Amino acid sequence: MWQPHVFVVLFGLLSLYGKGADCQHPGYTLNAHRLVWVASGLCVEIPCTFTVPAGSTLSTRVTGIWKRKGTPDIVVASTEASMVSEGTKGRFTLTGKVQEGDCSFSISNAQPADQGEYEFRIEDGSDGYSYSQYRLSVSVTDSPSNKIKVSDLPEPTISPGGELIAGKPITLTCTAHPAPQGCKGNITWGGRIKMTKLYNYKQEDQAGKSIISFTPSQREHNSPLTCTVTYSGVSTNSSITLKVQYSPSIKIRVSGYNGTYENKSLTITEGDSVNISCYVKSRPMADISCGEGQGYNVIKAPRERVLVLQNVSVADGVTYTCLARNTHGSVSETVSVTVEYAPRSSFISNCTSEGCRVEAIEGTSLSLLCSAESNPPANLSWAKTGQNSTDPLNSSSGRLDVSHVTTDNGGDYMCRARNKHGNSTVSITVVILYAPRGLTFNYCAVNGCFVEGNSSVKVQEGNSLYLRCDADGNPVANVSWVKQMQNGTITQISLTAQLNVTNVTAEHGGNYMCQTINRIGNTSKSISVVVIKTLTKDKIHLEGFMFGGIFVLLLAAITAVLVMRYKKKRRPPEEVEGSQRSPPNNYEVVYANIKRKTREPNMDPSPPNEGESPDKDLQYVTLDFSKLKPKSSPEPQETLYTEVKRK
């Protein structure tokens, strides 16, 4: 067992304490052993105090300096580190508080070169004083029996212990216990982490201890921290494992799908499945909430929640939130799910149901707007049924515009919505409305039905008359007939396109107008009806008598012509010529060609004699009616047409 008295540094019993016998500078005294022995490689603590004259005060900026006398002097220890020689830096330490009159210093890992005389000096601003009359001597001895063994070294102590909290600054102190010889070792910090990378890291070394401060974070949790004390080349250490408490942090993981996930946004296709994992790191363990109680399928694990979405629909395209909370705070992460699908629910703004129709008035403008529910948005195109669907109509953003509507624009149109997932179509029928036009008349009488080409129609009194008026219009026009009366008034006589008269009378003659109208406009056209009167029985008898009289007269005239012709043949030629040249001035020449209209049944036709002249059947007669007494003129009557046949 190591015996303390063997390794105790001997402060020679014959060493003298300076008592200030040399009083050249009253009040400046220094108390320390005049002679100090230390074994090579070991350490020694040298107690020392000093005084200054009464009435003098040392400031906090006072500098203490220990020098080893020589040529030149070497500063071995000082409160001003920049003044210390490189050969002694780290081994000589001025451990006393100079402003309080303490000039103690220590030597570690003593070297033979450390042997010599040492002198203390103070400097306070422009004032300074060297205690040269109080020099002390250090003697370094080399004895193997004085070496320190590792087993003899006490381990340093790291304090305080316990849990650290992320984000909260902490101060740790490593205290080196004195070696058996009474010296303190050199203290260093280390471990798996680099001390200089600790947040807000600071280190302060004092006699026998080292103090570090930093702000721990989550990454330092479970990291080892070691304090090492070195005594004259022999080291001992002590380690702790940092236990850091921290608020939750969340990591989102997505698996089991054929989509994309970036920037907290997940895009999948309708019908697919996906697992969204919310993994939480925290200390202590956090409470995790991820859609529980909202009807979602959630798998629970100690530090994780997995949201399972199967056969996703558009309704699943929402934002999901994972929330974690412990005593040090809470955090949440969101995942925005976007569900893509083929176009559907296509509709046209002008209607709301499949197979709808829209009406447009000829000459106006028409606009059809098509839209579809889809993700991503669909490309919209228009085509007219019956045309090549690969040659779409000009349209923009699903809008089909016609600036001037004509009847050619009527028909069925189809809007097609297409994206990368599929397509859908919706149809609409465009109906063009226009005012009535192209009026035509059809009429039927006893002699048949005709399409009217003129502006009048003739019908015999007593017969039936059918008139029809047709017009091209959309919607179908309402047709009516009106008649212009003799007094100028207009009378409506039919509310339909047909005008039927079963027994035509003279009153039915006149001007008729067909009027057509629909909600777009109206038009009209006139036709004149001429009624031909039919003879009564009395009139027929009278007319027959008159015709018979005329016929008798004509027959007499023909006979006279024949007689005169016969006589003419017997008259000398010159008489005939004279008579032909000088016809009576008071007679009109009447030419008649009399033919038998009907032939007696018992009369057989016989060819003419070959000797007869072909002109024999043509006779000329001259009648003079100038001597007849004129009859009184009857009242003017309408023209009557009849046909008289011989019995």
Domains, number: 5
Number of helices: 3
Distance between the termini: 185 Å
Question: What are the low-pLDDT stretches, counting only 5+ consecutive residues below 50?
Answer: 1-23, 576-623, 631-647
Could you explain how this protein is built, in words?
Mean pLDDT is 79; it is low at 1-23, 576-623 and 631-647. The chain is 7% helix and 44% strand. The protein contains three helices and 42 strands. The protein folds into five domains: 4-146, Immunoglobulin-like (Sandwich), CATH 2.60.40; 150-242, Immunoglobulin-like, CATH 2.60.40.10; 245-340, Immunoglobulins (Immunoglobulin-like), CATH 2.60.40.10; 349-532, Immunoglobulin-like (Sandwich); 535-594 and 616-647, no CATH class. It starts with a helix and ends in a 66-residue tail after the last helix. The chain has 647 residues and is mainly β. Strands 21, 22, 24, 27, 28, 30 and 32 form a seven-stranded mixed beta sheet that branches. Strands 29, 31, 33, 34, 35, 37 and 40 form a seven-stranded mixed beta sheet that branches.
